[in-house]
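User: I'm preparing a small set of examples for a lab meeting where we compare how different chains pack in three dimensions. I only have the primary sequence for this one, and I'd like the structure in token form so I can line it up with the others. Please keep the answer compact; I'll paste it straight into my notes.
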Amino acid sequence: MKRIAIMGASGHCKVIAEIALDNGYDDIVFVDLNPTIDMLGEYPVADEDTDLDNFLRDGYDFIVGIGDAKIRRKVQEKLLSKGANIVTLIHPNATIAYDAHIGLGSVVMAGAVVNPGTKIGDGCIINTCASVDHDNTIGDYVHVSVGAHTAGTVAIGDNSWIGIGAVISNNLSVCSDVTIGAGAVVVKNIIKPGTYIGVPAKNI
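Assistant: Understood. Below is the structure token output for the 204-residue chain.
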């Protein structure tokens, strides 16, 4: 039996649960700080304060299903400090190059593409039908949202969020702690943390 505990209890977590099923997990539980939630879809929701240590003791695998990058980092680092076995989940319908590296605790969703020479950091989300082209360097706890695309030789810093349908042109770098709005088009380097929207993307 393969057992996994997914930290969080949101719609995003339900998607991760489906990927876990496709990866052979047959015992799936969500773990959340809200003790009023007992079920999410067909899966039980356990209370983090009272039940987390039991799952650690019983040898469950773990992945963090929290969208906020800084909280995702905090929870994953807490799990690692407790000796948890953090896993990486890749949907079987994702396309991953033979030499791409996907970091610890990252999830790659259905229809996503990660092309050759690319390195994805720890705790990342490469969401449904997103594409990360060749020779990209994606930092830790980055979220490349649904249908977002990065061209070749792009670098994205830690904790950044690339919004739905956004595009980053080739040979560009985006610093850490940046939010790119939905549908934005990045055509020059971003060197200052903040939120960028529009075509071309500008800091607001």
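A couple of notes for your slides: The CA atoms of residues 162 and 180 lie 5 Å apart. The chain has a mean pLDDT of 96.

User: Perfect, thanks.
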